[in-house]
Design goal:
Strands 1, 6, 7, 8, 9, 10, 11, 12, 13 and 14 form a 10-stranded mixed β-sheet that branches. A two-stranded parallel sheet has the order 2-3. The protein is globular. It contains 10 helices and 16 strands. About 25% of the residues lie in helices and about 25% in strands. The chain is of the alpha+beta class.
């Protein structure tokens, strides 16, 4: 994910800062000057408290599973082509909650809180699909992250006993399917007016170990034509981009249509409406039952201050967390030890699956682990042992 910022006015100068309260306009002008030549990861910026949101980035992973039945559907599909299509549909369904404003008010995006090393966000969804659990852990220091652009999805498709018997490696792991997903570039519009909103641009890919790939092209509203937040996606055999099996078109915050074959005239096989699709609420423990390292509890004083509009209290509470984290890092360095991750482990360098999948279905993409703070995978062994309190005797602030 390579965010960019657009501060160029497209209206009159009198509209500058129109979305900012009068008492904050001085800080806003200074902020605009500091980002005029900014090029990098937005999470590394120190933003004025009044444009901070009340969510930490660790909570954003919940947006990938607001529709659990859509998320788990690929695992029940025996056909590998349709399975890849369902993965594509699921990913497209995550774009609105992940990148569009959470309150549906255009031009009201807020900068999320930067997660600290060890921050956790845990919860579960319960619906007709069953119980889906969420484990989100910040495994790297944000200052060490120079590239955020890939995700990995692993699923076990339905397999008959006869197929397993014929498999040269009839173990559960041999039946697993892996999808490498690249994430879109983010373009922030409307900053100069104090009414920021997100546009996605460029293209992203999904590459599957089953031999299929998808390409998603994003486009915004142009000067003359086009609709904001538009996209076109195609699914095809890996390496054969012109042999289109399915085409998906629409606007990612609104709705999209899936058609068979290439173009707009194929038979409609499915649709998805991001605004009308019911959302399954995520259940998280009550605040008094959360560990000190869980996001809602750790950021509680900051969130309370932001909600009240108390910018001095916001800055003070946020600084306490940041200073405490710096002290923990200094202590670790002095003692020659590394931070203990509770749910994830660094992937072995011998696991070159990401490079194979990138070469197969993601042209020009490569995972540069030195820019991402490493490549991390969920560790079932660690997860079985993890329990509250997660870091006994330690506090994040």
């Amino acid at each position: 994910m390579s965010p960019s910022l657009n501060t160029s006015p497209s209206g009159s100068s009198k509209d500058e800062g129109a979305g900012i309260a009068p008492q904050n306009k001085g800080s806003w002008s200074s902020f605009l000057k500091s980002i005029a030549s900014f090029n990098g990861d937005l999470s590394s910026m120190t933003a004025p408290p009044f444009i901070l949101g009340t969510l930490s980035l660790t909570e954003f992973s919940a947006y990938w599973t607001q529709h659990p039945s859509v998320f788990i559907a690929p695992a029940s599909e025996p056909d590998p082509v349709k399975r890849a299509l369902l993965v594509l549909k699921w990913f497209l369904s995550t774009l609105k909650p992940s990148y569009s404003t959470r309150n549906d008010k255009y031009g009201s995006e807020k900068k999320p809180l930067n997660p600290f090393l060890g921050e956790l966000f845990l919860g579960k969804w319960e619906d007709e699909a069953g119980t889906t659990e969420l484990v989100s852990e910040q495994v790297s220091r944000t200052i060490h992250i120079k590239q955020i652009g890939h995700a990995l999805l692993t699923l076990t498709p339905p397999t008959s006993s006869s197929t397993i018997a014929r498999s040269p490696d009839p173990t559960p792991s041999a039946q697993k399917e892996t999808y490498l997903i690249t994430l879109p570039n983010i373009h922030i519009e409307g900053l100069i007016y104090g009414k920021p909103f997100v546009e996605l641009n460029g293209c992203t890919y999904i590459s599957s170990s089953s031999g299929y790939a998808a390409k998603i092209d994003y486009s915004g509203k142009g000067w003359v034509s086009g609709k904001k937040n538009s996209f076109t996606a195609t699914l095809y055999p890996a390496g054969k981009e012109k042999e289109i099996l399915y085409t998906v078109e629409g606007q990612w915050p609104e709705a999209f249509t899936i058609r068979q074959g290439a173009g707009k005239h194929g038979a409609v096989v499915d649709t998805f409406n991001a605004r009308t699709q019911p959302i399954t609420p995520l259940t998280v423990p009550a605040l008094d039952q959360q560990d000190a390292w869980e996001a809602n509890k750790a950021w509680d004083k900051v969130i309370t201050a932001i909600t009240k509009g108390d910018m001095d209290a916001t800055n003070a509470a946020k600084s306490r967390i940041e200073n405490a984290q710096r002290e923990l890092r200094r202590k670790e360095a002095a003692e020659g030890r590394d931070w203990e991750r509770k749910f994830f482990a660094r992937a072995d360098k011998s696991e070159e699956w990401w490079d194979r999948l990138a070469q197969q279905g993601c042209p020009g993409e490569r995972i540069e682990s030195e820019k991402t703070g490493g490549v991390w995978r969920f560790d079932e062994g660690k997860a079985r042992e993890a329990r509250r309190p997660f870091h006994e005797g330690l506090s994040p602030c």
